[in-house]
Description:
With 321 residues, the chain is of the alpha/beta class. The chain is built from 8 helices and 8 strands, in the order E-H-H-E-E-H-H-H-H-E-H-E-E-E-E-H. It starts with a strand and ends in a 17-residue tail after the last helix.
Amino acid sequence: MRRGTLFKNMEISQIKGLNTSHGEGTLNIVTGHYDQYKDIEGKFLGARFEPKVPTIFEYLRKTFAVPPHQTLIVNGEDRPDEEFYTFSNHFAFGIDYRSNMLSLYRFKAWLMRQQIAQGKLSDKEIEKKKKELTKWEKVDRRTKGDDRQGSELESFWQHWREYYGDSGFVNPRGDRLLTELTVRAIKELRPRLIMVNYQDCDYVHWGYMSHYTRAVSIMDEGLKNIVEAVERDEEYRNNTLFVVVPDCGRDSNPFLNVPCQHHFNSRSAHEIFALFVGPGVRRGDVVDRTVDQSQIATTLGRFMGFSAEHAEQRVLEEAIA
Ligand SMILES: [Zn+2]
């Protein structure tokens, strides 16, 4: 906070039919726009959503001709539905301006193709590996498996394989994995915009408050590692904006057996915060005024020099020095 601006009263709007969950929250942040998303297969709590307005990745890529491997989302294994939130259905943006995804799924899919090409797998093994990947491929409705990542990402995965091998048992897990992917990506891919979808604290759905608080400390450690990676790097140091924002709040109903849920549309599930840190951000400021999650996209655009023209237009002015 000393180094930036904290909006301590940010809200997810109370709009009828709007859920406070991870898919919706992620899309509110990246599009700056609320929508009553429905799972395209009508699955209860399903989150195969397709935004109709562009994501910040698409705006940035289109405005500055940024290549896809420099706009990245880092995703965990618990959120297959979010694996393809990389582009909208907007006619002027969409797949040509999509961001790339860094996740263990992408690594495994790449590895399987490598191993097949090298003739290393029996038909039975290929069958088995394809089965492992189906839950992910099912979500890839719009590109039908054609969402290949390009040569930069392929050499990224090549280096990952050289370091961690093929087993999948050596690399870090959970949010620590996302941190590792992010720090490596900063070094190897030189991203202009990267979103890290930390999610370990959601294990609180299993019922234990300690899952939540432990995960918060893992996330905190991850943020520290990412900030350090940026500060070690001359190009990124003093040239990088950090925005920390939750995709949803948490229920505070004391009568529920399981703490910190977010599917009951309670007031506190709509209550979040946002922290901005970086060059051009006002330092040491805490803003009490109520602001809105949909304002992030346009504000980011203001800092980065693109116009999020289909997003909520009110900028978080207090953040700007
Ligand atoms: Zn959850």
